[in-house]
Design goal:
Keywords: Coiled coil, Endonuclease, Hydrolase, Nuclease. The chain is an alpha+beta fold. It folds into three domains: 93 residues, Ribosomal Protein S5, domain 2 (2-Layer Sandwich); 39 residues, no CATH class; 134 residues, no CATH class. The chain has eight helices and four strands; from the N terminus they run E-E-E-H-E-H-H-H-H-H-H-H. Helix 6 packs antiparallel against helix 7.
Length: 287
C-alpha cells in the first residue's frame, strides 16, 4: 500500500530522570530533507544517528523533528555560601555603577548568574542516548502509520477518478467507429465538391487514407494499458510516487493525441484531462 508523504505525530516519554518530547512533521518533497531542532545536547551527540533513522524509515519527504528533554530532578543545588558570594559581587558592581537594587531584584540577578554558570553542555550517557533513539523510533513508527492511513485515502480518491476516465474511454470506444465513418464521408464529399465529375479512384484512395489517420484505436489501447499499469503500481508495497507521476504524463500524452485526432470527442478529452490533473495532484503527495 503506497504511503502519503504528509503526516504528524507526537510522542512523550518519561525516561528515568528525564522527560522526552518528540514532534515529527512530514510534507511532500521530491527527495528527502531532514531538519532537527530542539535540545542542544541531542543535536550535538545524536543528530547524525537520528538522520540515519529517518532515512531507514522513509525514502521521500520533508521531515521536521523537534526533540526536547526536560530534567525531572534539579541539575544543581545552590549552596548558601555561593549565594552570598554572588550577591556580594552583584552589590559591588551596582554600587560602583550607582544602581540601586531591591532585595527581590538582587536575588533574581544573583540566581540568574548562578544558573548561567551552571548551564554547561553535558555529554549524554549511553543509556540516555539509547532511550532517546528508541523514542525517536517510536515516533517514526507512529508517523509511518499516519502516512499509511493518509495513503489509503489518496488511493481511494485516485481509484474513483480512474474509474471515471475508464467510463469516458468506454463511451469513446463505442462511438469511435460511427464518428470515423462520418469523418470519411465528409472527406469524400469534400473531394467531390473540389473535383466535380473529374475525380478519380486514386483521389478517393487518398481521401480514405487521410480519413484513416483519424483512427484513434492505438491511442485508446495505449491509454487502457496505462490505466492498467497505474492500478498495478497502486498495489505495490513500495515507494511509487515517481512512477505514478511518469504514468500521468504518458496518459496525458495519449489523451491529447486522441483529442487532436478526433475533435468530436473534445467533451470527453477535456473531462478526462480534468480528472487526470486531480490524480496528478494527489500523486504529488505519494511517497
Amino acid at each position: 500500500m503506497p504511503y502519503s508523504m504528509t503526516g504528524f505525530t507526537f510522542v512523550k516519554k518519561v525516561l528515568d530522570d528525564y522527560e522526552v518530547n518528540i514532534k515529527v512533521k512530514s510534507l511532500n518533497n521530491k527527495s528527502i530533507d531532514i531538519s532537527i531542532k530542539g535540545d542542544k545536547n541531542v543535536l550535538m551527540y545524536l543528530d547524525l544517528e537520528i538522520r540515519k533513522l529517518v532515512q531507514q524509515y522513509f525514502e521521500r519527504g520533508s521531515f521536521q523533528l523537534y526533540i526536547n528533554i526536560n530534567s525531572l530532578t534539579p541539575k544543581f543545588i545552590v549552596e548558601p555560601e555561593k549565594l552570598t558570594q554572588y550577591a556580594n559581587v552583584v552589590r559591588e558592581i551596582t554600587k560602583q555603577a550607582s544602581i540601586y537594587l531591591s532585595d527581590d531584584k538582587l536575588y533574581e540577578v544573583t540566581i540568574g548568574m548562578i544558573v548561567n554558570n551552571n548551564n554547561v553542555e553535558e555529554e549524554l550517557d549511553d543509556t540516555l542516548k539509547e532511550n532517546i533513539l528508541n523514542a525517536v523510533k517510536e515516533a517514526l513508527n507512529a508517523l509511518k502509520e499516519e502516512r499509511e492511513r493518509e495513503g489509503k485515502s489518496l488511493i481511494l480518491d485516485i481509484e474513483s477518478r480512474l474509474n471515471k476516465i475508464e467510463e469516458m474511454l468506454k463511451e469513446i470506444e463505442e462511438k469511435k467507429e460511427k464518428v470515423l465513418e462520418s469523418a470519411k464521408e465528409k472527406v469524400y464529399q469534400k473531394v467531390k465538391q473540389l473535383l466535380g465529375e473529374n475525380y478519380s479512384e486514386r483521389a478517393f484512395i487518398e481521401a480514405t487514407l487521410l480519413a484513416d489517420k483519424l483512427d484513434i484505436t492505438e491511442e485508446v489501447v495505449r491509454l487502457k494499458t496505462h490505466i492498467q499499469r497505474f492500478r498495478e503500481l497502486l498495489n505495490l508495497n513500495e515507494p511509487i510516487g515517481r512512477k505514478l507521476d511518469f504514468m500521468c504524463q504518458e496518459m496525458l500524452r495519449e489523451i491529447n493525441t486522441l483529442g487532436n485526432k478526433m475533435p468530436d470527442f473534445s467533451k470527453f478529452t477535456v473531462e478526462m484531462k480534468t480528472e487526470l490533473e486531480k490524480i496528478r495532484q494527489q500523486v504529488q503527495n505519494i511517497e
